[in-house]
Amino acid sequence: MTLVDLITSEAATERRGLLAAASLAGVANALVILLVNVIVQSNDSSDMRSFAMYVLAIVLFVLGARHTCHRTVHIIESGLHRIKARVVDKIERAELQGIERLGTAEIYDRITENVSVVSDAAAPIALCLQSLCILAFATLYIAWLSPTAFMVIAALTAVGVSIYLSNKKEIKRCLRDAARTRVAFFDLIMDLLDGFKEAKFSRRRSREIAEDIVQTSDSLRVITARANILFGENTIFASCLLFAVLGGIIFILPRYRVIDAPLLSQLVAGVIFVWGPLGMLLNTSQAYIRSNVALAQIMLLEEKLDAATREGAALSDAVDPWTGRFTAIEAMNVEYHYASEPGGGGFHVGPVSLTVTAGEVVFIVGGNGSGKSTFLKVLTGLYPPSAGVLRVDGVLVQPGNVAPYREMISAIFSDFHLFTKLYGLVGVDEASVHRLLGQMQLDGKTSFAQQRFTRRDLSTGQRKRLAMIVALLEDRPICVFDEWAADQDPEFRKYFYEELIPALKRQGKTVIAVSHDDRYFRCADRVVTMEAGKILAIERTAKDSIRTDAGPSA
């Protein structure tokens, strides 16, 4: 998509109005040139009729130019709004693994930096549209004055414009390289901020990260400077082109008696009037090229988001075979393989077989890197199995019904996120929220009003308690907790295992929790031990242990 495509698609119903307004501005501008030349030639500046026509021409120019500018800006902004809404919709429908592979830095850059580039070009493009019409009518005026002079001017201008556009490919290449480098720069900045605590424990690590950021920034400086220098050279060349045209009119045409002195002054005035719109067109080409590159990057993002959306996973068309209730979840020989760079070996989980029944409490344990969190993401439908199947009450979980399956789950992962408000919850009872805040000992830390918590900048453990409140308010049949107790003090750790989980079980809810607290394993119906991406053992609280090599079905 180019900027012209964007304007054309958005202005389908008002193209004629835009063209009429731009033409009005062009005619009015040409009329101003004509009147100025007529008045100068007649030496009668007191003619009120000419003055009235002069004022009328200016008024018509302002009206046409204002309408063209206002509508073009609104058209471009409306188009950008539709693009942003479309991107957000594709993000919302995309699968987790696709978003993880794409990375947040590229998404941020495309819907902020690139959209801003196109938005900033709106006003110059509006002026460019009316400049085209002004240039057309003013050029006709010059041709009417002297066809020979017009041919000479047109030839010089054509040669100049072709030279002006000769570095267009290099400019586009520089802008594309700058876009890629800018994403890499954002990635490094986010890396530093996300790992700020870890960086503070090693001066060498901190310096190396900073050096990478500075080096990437310097690469971005070189690329951006090259593009801007090329744009600057074009602007200088445009001025030289004007001097060449004026020189041809003043020094060459009179020598061959093509024009006389009175006509010479009219042609010079006409060229000077024409050069304003032509200069606007040449200078606007910078914004146009930048906008086209930015739009191309946005379209590329949309293609990647399309690839991140599994076929048939449209939420609105999802079929719910369970209606919010289930008896058993069966993971049958499921595997998940993380994509890796060519020649590398990505992390692999599985094959894993596990059955979880309604109302059961299952703890998943194992060392770091054993595959617990990845298996949870497969079990909850966030990752599609690379092999094997996931069934709920005998129904295969697949793209067409994975959304209603997820709707049965409240999950708090280790990298959880608290939204600014309670999205997705309707009719939340504030009294219930305040009661839960009291139970979580957060009533003195934050409050609840207008569907949101008044404060979220709390400790990790306290934020996890807020996330637990949200999960309890969702009141779903399956609760998934990924090391929820890891950041809690001993008091709340005991509360989680000995009070909260039993209370959820009494309500008939299924609890699947990743845990390292072996002293509380007795609170589970079963403990599933994972190692190297597979189930090593399943142990019931009655201490009857089941061991398997490939992963048992229980």
TrEMBL record:
This chain's source organism reads: Sorangium cellulosum (Polyangium cellulosum)
Q: Which domain of life is it from?
A: Bacteria
> GO molecular function terms here?
ABC-type transporter activity; ATP binding; ATP hydrolysis activity; peptide transmembrane transporter activity
Recorded protein name is ABC transporter ATP-binding protein
* Entry's Gene Ontology cellular component terms: plasma membrane
Coiled-coil positions are 291-318
Record keywords:
ATP-binding, Coiled coil, Membrane, Nucleotide-binding, Transmembrane, Transmembrane helix
Signal peptide boundaries:
none
InterPro entries found in the cross-reference section: AAA+_ATPase (IPR003593), ABC1_TM_dom (IPR011527), ABC1_TM_sf (IPR036640), ABC_transporter-like_ATP-bd (IPR003439), Cyc_pep_transpt_SyrD/YojI (IPR005898), P-loop_NTPase (IPR027417), Type_1_exporter (IPR039421)
- Where does it reside? Cell membrane
